[in-house]
Design a protein that fits this description.
Structural class: alpha+beta
Oligomer: single chain
CATH architecture: 3-Layer(aba) Sandwich
CATH topology: D-Maltodextrin-Binding Protein, domain 2
CATH class: Alpha Beta
Shape: elongated
Distance between the termini: 34 Å
Number of domains: 1
Length: about 150
């Protein structure tokens, strides 16, 4: 069994929103609106190409794209995390990665009212027919964990 941070077919998938995070020292004053993020350094991944897209936590509102260039572009999630941890700027990280670091106060939510796009998480297993109960249960636990990772205002 494996979990992938992208869509892999055929498999069961779930999603995890990307949290807008930064170390506590990056912002003197926390951004109040998505537009305020434009004034700060954005550490992006190479798949975040079309500007910084953020979505309100309250789903009734429309998404917002900030036309900004990244300060640094990385090809690895872990490199983005490491640069953010070294006070180089803010980043979009999957909630399942960011949440434990936020709880330990190593990172903070840069803009708690918004999050990044949904990030697909795929569950791949070798069973083609009936799956053993432990495989189904593991998938249920992953979905439950990803559901709890969603940001709350």
């Amino acid at each position: 069994m494996a979990l992938f941070a992208k869509t892999a077919s055929p498999c069961k998938t779930s999603t995890s929103p990307l949290a807008i995070i930064s170390p506590p020292k990056v912002f003197n004053v926390s951004p109040a609106t998505p537009e305020d993020l434009r004034q700060h350094r954005w550490i992006s991944t190479n798949w975040q190409k079309d500007g910084l897209r953020v979505y309100p936590v309250k789903a009734a509102q429309t998404p917002y794209t900030i036309d900004t260039k990244p300060f640094a572009t990385c090809d690895s999630l872990w490199l983005v995390l490491e640069l953010a941890m070294q006070d180089m700027g803010f980043a979009l990280l999957p909630d399942i990665v960011a949440k434990p670091l936020i709880e330990k106060e190593k990172l903070c939510l840069a803009l708690a009212t918004h999050h990044g796009p949904e990030w697909p998480v795929s569950f791949v297993h070798p069973y083609q027919g009936e799956k053993p109960p432990q495989v189904n249960r593991f998938y249920q636990l992953i979905k439950l964990y990803l559901g709890k990772a969603r940001p709350a205002v």
